[in-house]
Design goal:
The chain is mainly alpha-helical. 78% of the residues lie in helices and 4% in strands. The longest helix is centred in the N-terminal third of the chain and has 23 residues.
Length: 103
């Protein structure tokens, strides 16, 4: 199976999972505690993905480089602004710039 077909199958699967959750949750009233937990899922998953990408590369520890510099910049923006949008925008820009200028 080609890589393109695998990506398309994965994309269709994740899309169906998202639509299924939306269809399941439509019109239901969740208790306040469940709503509070659901609001925190992004705040828990995104740092886990970033930490994994920051520390590991191809099942080995990542050497110090542009990823760590970009992480420090994004962390500073997050602490200062407390805005997910600004943190992601500036952090991703920092990754691109740091990767471009890193020797």
């Amino acid at each position: 199976m080609s890589f393109s077909i695998e990506v398309l199958i994965a994309a269709a699967g994740t899309y169906l999972l998202r639509v299924g959750v939306i269809a399941f949750a439509a019109g239901r009233a969740f208790p306040p505690r469940v709503r509070g937990v659901l609001r925190l899922i992004l705040a828990a998953v995104l740092p886990a993905l970033v930490a994994n990408s920051l520390v590991f590369e191809d099942n080995n520890f990542r050497a110090f480089g542009p990823w760590y510099v970009a992480f420090a910049v994004a962390l500073g923006v997050a602490v200062r602004t407390r805005s997910m949008g600004w943190t992601l925008s500036i952090g991703m820009s920092a990754v691109w710039i740091a990767t471009a200028v890193w020797p």
